[in-house]
Write a structure and sequence with these properties.
alpha+beta, two-stranded antiparallel sheet, 2 helices, 36% helix, elongated, binds zinc ion
C-alpha cells in the first residue's frame, strides 16, 4: 500500500523546501543545487541521460541512462561518484572520480562476469553431452 503522504509536494517557506511527510527541514538551496548539478551532469553526459531529484531527509540526485546505468554523487561533495550499471541481468557498482572511466570499468567487469558464466556453462554442458 502506497503511503499517500509521499504524494504531497514540498512546501517552500523561506530557506526551507520540505514535504509534510519528510519534516526534515530540507533546504531550498540544497534542492536547487541538486537540481542544477544533476541537469548539468546529464547534459554533459549527452543524449539519453536524464536527471532525477528526490527528497528523503534531504535532497538527493542521480543521473540515469534508461535502466542501464545510474550515477549518484558520493557524500563527499560531488567529487566522486557511485556508478550503478545494470547489464544483462547483472549489477555492477563502483566508486569513480571520472564517470566515463567508471562506467567503462563497470562494463569491463560485466563482460568478465559474462565470459566466466559462458565458460562455466560450456564446462557444465560438456558434463552432460
Ligand atoms: Zn524534506
Amino acid at each position: 500500500m502506497k503511503n499517500k503522504r509521499h504524494n504531497q509536494k514540498p512546501q517552500h517557506k523561506g530557506a526551507v523546501y520540505c514535504s509534510a511527510w519528510c519534516r526534515h527541514g530540507c533546504r531550498w538551496s540544497e534542492f536547487k543545487k541538486a537540481e542544477a548539478f544533476a541537469a548539468k551532469l546529464a547534459k554533459s553526459l549527452g543524449r539519453g541521460w536524464t536527471p532525477h531529484v528526490w527528497e528523503n531527509m534531504g535532497w538527493h540526485w542521480r543521473v540515469e541512462y534508461g535502466t542501464l546505468c545510474a550515477v549518484y554523487p558520493r557524500s563527499d561533495g560531488y567529487r566522486k561518484f557511485w556508478i550503478d550499471v545494470h547489464v544483462g541481468g547483472r549489477q555492477i557498482c563502483l566508486d569513480a572520480k571520472n564517470i566515463a572511466s567508471g562506467i567503462r570499468a563497470a562494463i569491463s567487469a560485466a563482460k568478465d562476469q559474462a565470459a566466466r558464466t559462458m565458460a562455466d556453462a560450456d564446462k557444465l554442458a560438456k558434463a552432460v553431452a
